[in-house]
Amino acid sequence: MRVDVVVIGGGAAGLSAATVLARARRTVVVVDGGEPRNAPAGHTHGFLSRDGVEPRQLLAAGRAEMVGYGGHFLSGLVTSIERSDGGFVIHTTDLVLTARVVLVATGLRDELPSIAGVREQWGIDVLHCPYCHGYEVRDSPIAVIGGENRPFTLHQAALVRQWSDDVIFFPNGIELTTQERHALLARDIRIDTEPVARIAVRAGRVHAVDLIDGRSVPRRTVFVGPTFLPRHELLKDLGCDLGENGWVTVDPTGLTNVAGVWAAGNVVDSPAQLIGAAAAGSRSAIAVNHYLLAQDIEYALTRNQPVG
Ligand SMILES: Cc1cc2nc3c(=O)[nH]c(=O)nc-3n(C[C@H](O)[C@H](O)[C@H](O)COP(=O)(O)OP(=O)(O)OC[C@H]3O[C@@H](n4cnc5c(N)ncnc54)[C@H](O)[C@@H]3O)c2cc1C
Q1: Which of 194, 224, 254 is the last residue of a domain?
Q2: Over the stretch 19-51, which tens digit does the pLDDT of each residue have?
Q3: Residue 118 lies in a domain
Q4: Is the pLDDT of residue 308 over 70?
Q5: Strands (E), the chain
Q6: Atom of ligand 1 lying closest to residue 59 CA
Q7: 77 C-alpha to center of ligand 1: Å?
């Protein structure tokens, strides 16, 4: 099957891109592994006019719109991409596609702190993003647990105080400078330096943060700082440049340094929320269409030289 564009990843970024392309009457296939990053959460927030919708429902609606405009959706994984004849050969778990352009929207993986209870409660009441779910847990007793992602969790400890006046920061191994300590205490954020043993769960909800010294500190919500790992292996294999932070670099439209290869959403932009990922996909799609148009014009000129 030869198409104009293969979009890899059918989350907010990929589906938004594919919908714009399908409406521009480009042939487009989305290949999707079916694991959007926010799947563990019960609801999404911050997506204009879709407040509270379940993550998979949002994507199902987006998929139906995209298919309604003539786009194609394939469940499966893209395992490799090769450059060939000015285009690309895309190998999926089930078949081989060829395309003039690839748009990679494979998202990122949240590597969670290895604290008992975090994985089980992830997306329910163990959270990372107060803009996504802070309002829903407002005024509850909140714990912020530090660890590997120092700058992120320190920022989080200061930030979530906006949603609750009962916040305890457990540095959990992070050494605080005097300035950092004072900045937290000045805003009534308590600090407990005892290492965390586990998150205690009762009836499916966070109940407390258990500490190594045997204390159990009652909490209803826990914020943690995952390490954000882009799913960018396909881009790296194609020769896309990485920046100093180890992430693939793109221009404002999502174009990588490899001609014909775009990337959008969390795979190149870790803070992007759903609406930002969708916007990035849309912006990339328009740039992709302009790139294809330039090719179309060149092709038409070589075939049909105007007379006169
Ligand atoms: C717990 C949690 C809750 C969140 N809640 C919110 C919220 O309420 N509001 C909000 O705005 N944001 C929220 N977010 C952030 C949101 O998840 C991201 O902004 C969004 O998922 C980014 O979209 P994306 O399309 O870039 O990636 P994703 O949604 O992760 O989609 C990527 C897709 O690519 C697929 N894929 C990966 N590799 C391959 C491959 N090789 N071949 C084929 N397919 C592949 C994956 O299976 C996945 O379906 C939340 C995040 C988390 C972790």
Answers
A1: 224
A2: 999 999 999 999 999 999 999 999 999 999 999
A3: yes
A4: no
A5: 2-8, 28-32, 72-75, 78-84, 87-92, 96-104, 108-111, 126-127, 142-145, 167-170, 190-191, 196-202, 205-211, 216-218, 221-224, 227-230, 261-263
A6: 29
A7: 15
